[in-house]
């Protein structure tokens, strides 16, 4: 059977797994994915941790210890999650060394409730960086306007950053700007910029979901023909911005000092519409020096039947621009859609975080009751 993952790697695409749990770590599942070359990095989010907490007993012993110490939910969440992320970093340490820091990276998020407060975000990023204490860690920071200065500040201190929740090419252009700013400040401070990693997580499938719903309301043959085209077009135009950034004098100076690019990471690549090919957002977004982070179902589908046909991005900028330019013909405002997606995504991120806190608090209370009954 052809090895799709080797082909993706040869095309410059790194495959990361959008999932981490203690069960996966304990069972050796992550180690197997790494050893077989399917996965070279890991991303996570509060929903994944909350599901892992409620679906198994892997956290029981640590939760009991935390309850016994009188730890409250927020501190407990950080102890639970940093424990798992530290182990994941160790699982991927070999990849990190072998790729000279390009891959083998693992993300952990700041509290999304602080996404409108740059100073609070930086403070938490520093605390997480110290707590995990691994060179292959990335701190996941939402790309809200208010948090962009936090991205630059963290990079300036040598903290690796995954800038997340990017939906528009305009916001991504701002992200490339703060990346250059932070790296220039790190260089000016005498830091080794070759050791500072960063990715920019550009969300894909949610744009199709939002636009397709609006197109369906138009209910015309032309609108139906536009379905399922916006997300890939948007992502391809983001890659054009990436190339423009690499062509800048600012980047060339940083590259001469040993800096590595802030790669584009395609996020939300699980296909939501069952009418679409389940490997759509992998096959159509193959481009050099990108990352595609996948849920396990997408990872398995890619391994089973994905067709990798080389670079599917750089030759399609003009067509992609036309696709987005057609949206107003159907009464759809691109700016309004991406703005609503950012707001909804941040609200969902906060909701997932609060659900995780509630689950942990409930588990801690249960352990305290058991202890008191003895």
TrEMBL record:
Q: Which keywords has UniProt assigned to this entry?
A: Cytoplasm, Pentose shunt, Schiff base, Transferase
Cell compartments where the protein resides: Cytoplasm
Cross-referenced Pfam families: TAL_FSA
Q: Which residues form the active site?
A: 140
Its pathway is: Carbohydrate degradation; pentose phosphate pathway; D-glyceraldehyde 3-phosphate and beta-D-fructose 6-phosphate from D-ribose 5-phosphate and D-xylulose 5-phosphate (non-oxidative stage): step 2/3
- The residue range of the signal peptide is none
A molecular function annotated in GO for this UniProt entry is:
transaldolase activity
Which chemical reaction does it catalyze? D-sedoheptulose 7-phosphate + D-glyceraldehyde 3-phosphate = D-erythrose 4-phosphate + beta-D-fructose 6-phosphate
Cite the PROSITE patterns for this sequence.
TRANSALDOLASE_1
EC number, UniProt record: 2.2.1.2
Question: Keyword Transferase on this protein?
Answer: yes
Q: Does the keyword Iron-sulfur apply?
A: no
Q: Which family does it belong to?
A: Belongs to the transaldolase family. Type 2 subfamily.
Biological role stated in the UniProt entry: Transaldolase is important for the balance of metabolites in the pentose-phosphate pathway.
User: HAMAP family from the entry?
Assistant: Transaldolase_2 (MF_00493)
Q: Protein name, please?
A: Transaldolase
- Organism (species): Streptomyces caledonius
